[in-house]
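I'll show an entry:

:::
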Amino acid sequence: MAEITAQGVKALRDKTGAGMMDCKNALAASNGDMEAAIDWLRAKGLAKAAKKADRVAAEGLVGVAVSGTAGALVEVNSETDFVARNELFQSLVSDIASAALAAEGDVERLKGMPYPGTDKSIGDYVTDLIGKVGENMVVRRTAYLAVGEGVVASYVHNQVAPGLGRIGVLVGLESSGKPEVLADFGRQLAMHVAAASPVALDIAGVPAEVAEREKAILAEKNQGKPPHVLEKIMQSGLKSFAKENCLLDQAFVIDPSQSVTQAIQQAASRAGAPVAVIGFVRFRLGEGVEREEEDFAAEVARTAAGS
């Protein structure tokens, strides 16, 4: 009997989209012959996920799970909203979100973890489900947030089931204050993040490429001005940018008369201890996914031509 190597199993999986164990069994049944193994998988209906894996999956759900002082977000995509509304898919995302707490933000680690109640990995379980459901599904990303003391609060917008929706947010509050006050304020702050979509906690946390782009725009608008004047314009412009895009500088959505920083100070007073926002994560379903634009007129023309 031919030796079944990990490289061979991976190569077969890449060709067919079938699960790792199914690929191993196929190679064993085919004495290591790759083409025969592909036929074996096709005969059992296990290779049909391969074509579906090329389809754009930009629908689906964002899932959130919080346990103690840690929380995790996941985005699992499907091709259509119809599948996302299915209880089977919702259970899938909920289970993956719970598992993501142990993955600590590593999506490849998450895919390799066991799917609850099965002998398959999460990645293999999703691949198998593609064949059953009939459309592509992708465990796209995950994030993790934890505090030493305090709370990790969450909020899900457009919630379709507990912990599942189209926007998911985690906010970490480090504090020894009253837990009920921290939990209430943390949820409000998570709602703010969902609505205001800050790019960073403060101006120091803004990605370098974003800050440089803002500076370039300001420089373009103020060509010809003396360097010392331009420097003041830059500083003022970045402050304005921070008020619109940095969490601590934004106007608090719950009470726009104050900034988020002022709201944090008030929450600290109610909690009886200092409160520090150590970070936040916001997932919006499908952001950054290249969606295929349907040319309806061209499709009608092809149909009329019999193609």
In short: The beta strands are 59-67, 70-78, 137-146, 150-157, 164-165, 167-174, 276-284. Residues 204-244 form one domain. The chain is about 50% helix and 20% strand. The mean pLDDT is 87.
